Amino acid sequence: MGTLDEPPNAEPTGLAHGRLGTGSIAFLGVAAAAPITTVIVAIPPALAAGAGPLAALSVVIVAIVLLLFGTPYAAMIRRRPGAGAAYPQLARGLGRPAALVGAWLALAGYHAIQFGLYALVGQAAAPLLHGWFGVSAPWWAVAAGCWAVVTLCGVIRVEFAAGWIAALTVAVSGVLAGLAAANVLRPADGRIETATYLITGPARIDRPLLGLLLALAVLAFAGFETTAAYAEETRDPYRTAGRAARVAVLLIMVLLAGVTWSLIVAAGPHGVAGRAATRGPELLFALAGERLAPWAVTIGRMALLAGLLAAILAVHHAIARYLFALGRERVLPGVLGNASPRTGAPRAASLTQSLIAGAALLGTALTGAESSARTARWLTVGGSLAILVLLLLTALAALLHLNRVPGREGVWTRFLAPLLSTVLLGVLLYLAGRNLAALLGVRAGSTWVVVAAGGLAACLAAGLAHALVLRSARPVRYAGIGLGGAVLVITPRSDAPAEPDHGSGNPWTWDTPPTASPAPAEPAPDVPAKVPRQRTPGAHRPERIHREVNG
User: Is 505 domain-assigned?
Assistant: First the structure.
């Protein structure tokens, strides 16, 4: 029998086991973060605001914070790997209501990010279609083509889908590295100035700008934490996903910080602000056009389109696994917990997510709405903010659970790393909330600021309401939140006074071996048998799992 912290191998859930390694999952996390999208959409406005070398430095600082967070995150994955990623961790650390709040935050955040990526796809493909075929396709037609590819890849074997995503991510990373190398080899004025990487006069650092950059950087990493959603499908469920999360953080840091610094080198530390303000999202391609042949710029635009497709695919798979985990525990309709017996993919959850995305695209196209980089920025920033709240809750859950139920972890993993990551993620969340208008690119007091804040509040209310409804209407399902569909043994409570047990061999107690199971005694003829009543909802703890009784 396994312990509470290291449960025995669960019964097969339908997901494909042992098909993914550290590299595949790490690239899934990098793809979900979409670093090339950050370079195109978020970095130019930061440089235009006068960030200079602080832009690259803020990426490194945030990466260090997330690596701290990765230590307790990996420890929690080792204790209970599951397709719900942060969802079972919140259940163990903060309780079932917090787990449902986290699930709503994850679903809303990832859907918003995916819709923002769909909004960018049309614009990314427009220059290619015009240059190759001389046509201008509507954005929704390009998005519909990507949607069809995502729908198909969502139901195939996970190792094939991960292979495609990894190939696209490697290609995009290679193109970004090549463009960055060209910028560094041909710097502005023929030399790399120290002002491109050193901050002159640290006392004169614009603190509000630094806070904005840190908030922007942490939102740029949103997606790396999806690696935990594939823990059940790895070769080593207890270690691979946690290791892949930290590898993903390192890869994203190298790409974002390196490319950002190369832009400063190519435009010059004193001229990069003006160039970024003038060129905007075209800054990367404009600098590449001054140094490389036109075909290289075309390859860069193809990499942007491929990076967006890889990001949409990775986010789709993460959402599908969240839906699968919730359906397996009957928190959402149980059909979502069904997996394909042939491919082992969460087919019902994947098709459901595809239907949701397809309905959103269809509704947007029918209303005649036009996509823009501004709309994509609103959606991705709002979704990333929800993921940041989820990371903060996960860090706090790890701090509480790892110390409340100590295991093999040392002081650093159990206490110091989760404490530091909780405090630092809280500071980053505060900075993001304080600079929300600037992150969205709107004026203070804009309606979009209210919408973003209201969306987070709605997720909180929806999670708490969901928990209250389950607790009162479906207490057994409520008791199983975060247990990955494990069978529960509910101990009934009787109103009759307890009588001493004279070796009755009750199989429902922890003290009696399961082999002792005499026939139950007949009730007295004149005394009606009492119907056992359900215990108070919320009293069922994970230690009620009794594998000897459940067989």
Answer: no
